[in-house]
Structures are given as C-alpha cells and as structure tokens.
Amino acid sequence: MTSFADDDEDSARPKSLRLYLPGPVTTDPRVRQAMARDWGVWDAEFRALTERVRKYILKVAGVEQTHGCVLVQGSGSFGVEAMVQTFLPRDGRLLIPVNGKYGERIVSICEKLGRDHVVLHFPQGEAVDPVAVDKALAADTAITHAILVHCETSAGTINPLEEIARIIKARGRKVLIDAVSTFGAFDLDAKRLGYDALATSPNKCFEGVPGCAIVVAPVEVLRGATGNAQSHSLDLADQWSQFEATGQWRFTPPTFVMAALGEALRLHEAEGGSAARLDRYRRNHQALADAMEGQGFVPLVPRAEQAPVVISYRDPADPCFDFGRFYTGLRDLGFMIYPGHLTEIPTFRVACIGALNPQDMRDVADAIRQVCNEMGITDFAPAPLL
Ligand SMILES: *Cc1c(COP(=O)(O)O)cnc(C)c1O
Which of 24, 36, 114, 303 fits 203 for a cystine, CB–CB 3.0-4.6 Å? Predict the structure, then answer.
C-alpha cells in the first residue's frame, strides 16, 4: 500500500510551471512568498490588511466613500452568485445576455435561486449585441435589472460593456457586471458605468491567488439590499455592514489569500495600476497572436474582436491531433493550458493574463509547435467551417 506522500512523489511534475489559464493565473514569487507565515484571524494586523485591500479596490474602481467593497469567501462564481441574490430584489426580473459558459452560469444561478430571469442568446464567439439588449428591455417592462459578463472568458469575447450599460440605464434599469476576468486591467470606472454592483476575483487581473471574491457597489445600493439574499453566507449586505461596523469578516477569512492579495495589489500599484497592466496584457496578446498566427494557427474570434485576456485557437484538422496528448505534452514542458474544450467548435485556449511577459508568450507558442510536431503535425490549419 502506498502512502499519501509516495503517491505525490510518483507524479512527474515539471520543475517550474507557468499557467496560461484565464484564472487562476501565474503569480509573482513575491505573491507566493507573502503566504509563508500564519496570521491571527481576528487580530488588528489582519483587520488592517482587509481594510487596506478594500480601500485599494475602490481606488481601482475610481471611487471612495460613495461605494463599498465587500469580500466573500469562495471563488469568483461565489461572488457572482452573491451579487445576484444580494442586489436583485426577490421580486426583481433579471435580463441575462448569454454568449458563453459564464453567461450560462448566471442563468443556472437564477434557476437554482428561483429568481425570475429572461435569457438573450448570442452565438459563442460573437459579442452581445447592444441593439438586441435595447429591444429586449423595451419589449419587457417587468425587467428590473440586467447583468453583463464583460469578457466572456470561455471564448475570449469582449462584450461592449460601456455601450450596453448606457442602454440599460437609459431604459431605467439597474446594471450588474461580471468583471471577474477584466477588473484590475480594463478601465471599469464605477462613476462612468453607473453599475449597481460589479463582481471580480483576486486570481485574474490582480494576479493574486484564488479563495475569495470581490464585489463593489454604491453604499446606498448596499444599504437598500438588506433582506434580498436567501443565503446567509452569501449575503453581501450583511457582510458589508459587518465590515463597516467592526472591520471583521463574519466567518473565518481566507488569511493566506488575503496576504497574497495584499502583496499582489502592492505590485499592481507599483506597475502603474490598471492602465499599465492592460498595456502589458496587450503586449502579451500581440506577442502570442503574432507567434501563433505566424505558425498557421487560426483563432476562433477574429483578432480585432479578441480581448487581451485569452485567445481560443481552433484545433488543427490533422487527424494526428490528440487533445489529451497535446495538453500533457505542454504540461510536461512546464506550460499549463486549460485541460478541455469550452466551445462548440473544438478549440484550445491560451491566456495572456497573469505574471507573464511577451517572452513567456513566445515560449508557449514555441512549445505548442514542438508538441504538435512530436504528434507528427506540421500543418496547423483547422477544418473548414461549414
Ligand atoms: C473566472 C471567471 C468567473 C469565476 O470563475 P471561478 O471558477 O468561480 O473563479 C466568473 N466569470 C468570468 C467571466 C470568469 O472569467
């Protein structure tokens, strides 16, 4: 019988691993180092860290006292689910434009919560159409809120958030935003967008580690949201009141996640904030797109519509292409991509966010070519679309 430890040693693991995932992302060694000690959960030092993080998030959102920042244990989806149930009144009706997996996840959240909703479908890989959103709002006056996934990370599609937010508000409805894969790099100014709530997570553009979710909302919206949530642990209005009153989390906080986030936000500020980070992601995106297209790979979303977050490439048509071998081949070389297909048309995804630079993107493109060559593939063109 093998022990737990033996089992672990058995697994062949490359010495260093870079994550080309749209979350959790590759972290800076200093972020990992920040988790190397214990924290007293209810101690003043940890309370100060929580306070510092909440303040900095608001600064990134472009606001101060007018808004509140609530943190909640869990992954980004916990934040989205908490946002929906806290800010959509029980008798509200939510419009959900869907052009990929994360939009579908919000539909599933509403179904489980029993919240009234209307779904507006768009083809995967295509952006949500603002005109269709406007028509849907005009046609159904019972809709009180609309939610938009800013970057539909499953295909790498960026949705026209600013225009759609303007339309929703012009129709007198409230805006909720899933900005999990964009906040911290893209300009998501709270005053300009005028949202009721925005959800994000530490392990995407902030380059922290997974374990909590972050929600920003105007103070008056937070005050008015009491009693909406049907879950106690995901009630953001309740957690916000507690933060304001005592500076404490209601339940055991993810101390290591917060320690890493504190360091990640220090690095975010030192890099020059969201604008500088987006600039690096743009350079990463360009380096990746140039290298991959130069080798003959074809993206699912045309380059002009790609977000500098993640690119989905069509699988090569060559019958020798085996996704399982492709994935493990890359992993054994120290390059981690998403281990599956998320789109109807077979694609693999390579992310450009995280503590990575343009050279890291050229490195992964080289490794992709090498692994394909080892499978006997030299022509990377996908099958023609019907
Ligand atoms: C990553 C992500 C989420 C949250 O996913 P988790 O796996 O729960 O962290 C939600 N929405 C979008 C758009 C994302 O990219």
Answer: 24
